[in-house]
Amino acid sequence: MNTIPQPIPDLDDPEVAETTAEGVRLVASRCVNCAALDFPARTVCRVCLGADFRRELLPGDGTLYAFTTIHTAAEPYTVGYVDLPSGPRVFGHIRSTGTVRPDAAVTLVGTGIPLTFAVREESHG
Amino acid sequence: MADTHVVAAAMIPMGKHRSASYAGLATPAVAQALRESGVDKTAIDAVYCGHAFGGMLTGQRIVKNVGVGGIPVVNVDNACSGGATALAEAHAALQSGRYRTVLVIGVDKLTQFGGGTLPLVPEDWEVRSGVVMPAIYAMRAQRMMHEHGVTREDLAEVSVKARRHGALNPFAQFRSEVTVEEVLASRFIAEPLTLMQCCPTGDGAAALVVTTDPEVVARHQVTMRVRASVLHSGTFEGGFRDMLRPEISYRSAAEAYEYAGIGPEDLDLVELHDAFTVAELVYYEALGLCKKGESVRLLRDGGTTFGGGTVVNPSGGLLAKGHPVGASGAAQVVEAFWQLTGRAGERQVEGARIGLTHVTGGGISGFDHGSCCVHVFEAVGRG
Q1: Distance from CA of A47 to the nearest CA of B (A)
Q2: How many domains does chain A have?
Q3: Taking the domain B5-114+202-218, which CATH number applies?
């Protein structure tokens, strides 16, 4: 049976995050065939070319690998890469509160694009 | 198959040439290279033109001005590796026996965008989220400071060296020296990188005549032969990447050394992709010029300036010479040609015999870089 490949409407912003009872979660895809995990979600598996995916929600806590404040737009803004324990590295805006350092613990706040992360409060005691 | 030789090379000075079209930029370089090649233009079998922003049929718009046409013209985009990719493709075609003598062009006009950072493709969701190339390198700089104790002054020293070399180069966009203080006092682009730590917006063009024809080669006292030509694209990684070890450059350089049968210690000069100061420090390691964590020491010890073991970016590099995207890879080869044929004037590297050129093209999410192109060249003299 011939299937007709359909174009992916990837110019529409992907659904990247949703708010759950447990907090904000990133929307990833898990390939049913080979278990490859991708964020943002895909419709063609980059490993096995499969077309079947499960939607997987990833906790938004991660480690801020690196960040920088960009001064090329009307207002400065801070961006960085966050490494999630589940595997993906995610690009987003960093809401700086006080002193932020590389390898800081951050958490996802908000569900839009660009993703926004904030420094996680240290727990004491 | 006979070796590929570069027999002629030319470029225009890089700078802001707002009144010149792509053809206006490249025609003088092409004409000079053809005149110096000892080849009649009817012997040119094909043209490879590297550019990123010239639009349709850029190569053809250029060569029609020198009466070259009818032959295959291939336009090549690989972002900042475009000009070098054009040479890599030309070399591969020559080695296959398909062509004997080829014209290679690299050209781009960044002033068409006004100013600002290199336009990236908004189809990439990270670009839509606000990433720009300086940010990628700024994060590399932050990790270098965090992991290896590199200081802001160390980064600024890369610009100081670049500008010192560029001051000797009539083809450089910047021909004045700067101090560490001036570099650090220039305005932030993406912290910690300041304006003078970023390559400038500019326009430029370079041209090469490349051949396997021994009769053509014999007309020249000194030529430059290709000992290695390596082209790679990046490999996607959705998770953790060590941004200080961009795999694409490590891989490409290692292959180039293997093909050429040399090691980094054999290089008299290198023209590498110093789009931002931190890039030079990262690429010292990737090209094997020093061990991990030793980049700053190599720079500060003078090992990569004139008199040092391997002169890095004698032309002034992208930082001082300029970085019109598609032109840069070809312009690096022009510099290597002038150095290896003893025509580099005030910035001549003494006894230069073997050189390496390296460019990368970025940025796509999940990649260290989209492309990387490395060449190794050797001077060949005849009595």
Answers
A1: 11
A2: 2
A3: 3.40.47.10
